[in-house]
Write a structure and sequence with these properties.
The chain is an alpha/beta fold. It contains twelve helices and ten strands. It starts with a strand and ends in a 7-residue tail after the last helix.
Length: 333
């Protein structure tokens, strides 16, 4: 690499004492561009991973493909992207992910990013500590998190990219409900999770575990319920898989298709906004993306929206496209 990677840690007040017992001291991966040592200051891009991801996952080896930091470094070295500081944030939980929300069942992950991670990076690294020089980007659950930050923290992030973010909950989540109901039959969520973790340690997770784990993680994010197993309310009746309308309504309130129209003033403050999704996305997320973009444009928000011929997985190459759009629009020192 022409630039370099540096590992550090952040002690999070927001995650201290979280209900899942996940660590409040988190790893943080920094990409430092060529010329970092010369005293320049750089715009900062915060990368949010998807469900079951972690900060360490950004440097996983994939045969024949560069990792995301390697890919970005090649582009910076070639002059295809202007130099920037990359911040790869850790949002993993005992349920596989946080959705980057504040939840009584998971912890305060939105506050962790906004109030712990960003100030930590600005104190220790040569950023330009202004919203105009700060972007948040992510894919899948990370894309959802980016939209959440746009809605709640335009004071921190002036630029945003959402790749295949969770949106249009009827299409991306409902298909998992009958599968999860079948897996949970005869066991409450805490019992199922304990059995899953034991099996994962002793052998490996099964492909059919993902829908159930995903439903539990989303329920912890969208419908926390103190006193229930794992502190969450399931959106369906365990015995029949019939929707619990009052719980499902709580999920829908977190759907970008629903919350974006009510937070348009925040999105109008952004300097640049990029949203994309593959036309063959296995979770049908392009429809949610289209609906979000429609609401943004109807509300007078400028957004670059793209679709591309691919599915949901293995699309890290799309960060090149979004950063080519965002970085030239970010303030530089």
């Amino acid at each position: 690499m022409r630039g370099r990677l540096e590992w550090t840690e952040v002690d999070s007040k927001a995650l201290a004492g979280n209900p899942l017992g996940d660590p409040s001291r988190r790893p943080l991966l920094l990409y430092l561009p060529p010329g970092y040592e010369r005293g320049a200051r750089f715009p900062a891009v915060y990368f949010l991973h998807g469900f079951s991801g972690s900060a360490r996952g950004w440097v996983n080896v994939t045969p024949f493909q560069p990792s995301v930091p390697e890919r970005l470094d090649l582009l910076v070295a070639a002059g295809s992207l202007p130099p920037f500081l990359g911040v790869f944030v850790d949002g993993f939980t005992a349920l596989g992910g946080s959705q980057w929300v504040n939840s009584s069942a998971v912890g305060r992950y939105r506050d962790y990013l906004a109030h712990d991670v960003v100030p930590r990076v600005d104190r220790a690294y040569p950023t330009i500590p202004r919203r105009e020089a700060r972007a948040v980007v992510g894919k899948s659950s990370g894309g959802y998190g980016a939209l959440l930050m746009g809605a709640h923290h335009p004071d921190l992030f002036g630029h945003l990219a959402c790749h295949a973010g969770d949106a249009g909950f009827e299409y991306c989540y409902l298909p998992d409900f009958p599968r999860a109901a079948a897996a949970l039959e005869g066991a409450d969520p805490a019992e199922w999770l304990a059995a899953f973790l034991r099996r994962a340690r002793e052998t490996r997770p099964r492909a059919e575990d993902h829908p159930t784990l995903n439903v539990l993680a989303m329920a912890a994010a969208y419908s926390p319920s103190p006193g229930e197993p794992l502190g969450l309310a399931l959106p369906f009746e365990p015995s029949t898989a019939r929707l619990k309308e009052e719980v499902w309504a709580r999920w829908l309130a977190h759907d970008p298709v629903r919350f974006v129209p009510g937070t348009l003033p925040a999105f109008r403050e952004l300097g640049s906004l990029f949203i994309d999704c593959g036309t063959r996305d296995e979770y049908h997320l392009r429809w949610g993306a289209r609906m979000v973009v429609e609401s943004l444009r109807a509300g007078g928000v400028a957004v670059l929206h793209e679709e591309f011929d691919d599915g949901h997985r293995g699309i890290d190459y799309r960060y090149e496209r979004s950063l080519r759009w965002l970085l030239p629009r970010m303030e530089r020192g």
